Amino acid sequence: MFRFKQKLTxxxxxxxxxxxLTACGFQLRGEYSVPEDITAISVTSFDQYSKITxxxxxxxxxxxxxLVSPSKDVPNIHITGESITDRTLSLYQNTRAAEKEVxxxxxxxxxxxxxxxxxFTATMTRSYLDNPLSAxxxxxxxxxxxxxxxxxxxxxxxxxxxxxxxxxxxxxEKQLLEDTNTPADAKS
Length: 188
Known about the structure:
The protein is an alpha/beta fold. It is 45% helix and 29% strand.
């Protein structure tokens, strides 16, 4: 009987928490999406075969966006460059680097026809221990960190593109106001 009451209490608690989270509008991270107005997009890059370009195309496919060839009437993401820099955070007693910080940055421009273009930067920072006694493991760890940072940057780019929705809405409202304020004689 005690087990039954315990299970019932746990189930009630889970239902209560779920309903509270649902009522406050909580959504899991990753629910950012590209504006609904953008159903197809072209991707151009400084290097069409780079990892970041492939990851961005993958993220767009996950958001159900069709990838098309560049055209003047199709939105475009142009990846202008990426960079990886590092700096020493701490030193061992023998003045060798003990901990390093890696900064990954990707710059890109989103161009939407009739709206214009906007430049963005996605930046990721990670730190890791730099053990000089394990050089092979250190380089493998560094490569894994860089790949992870590229993946997170591609996701961050999708979140940044979600901000375009407000700009598109503002542009459409502006166009609507201009159309309604234009006299009938000026339209013809």
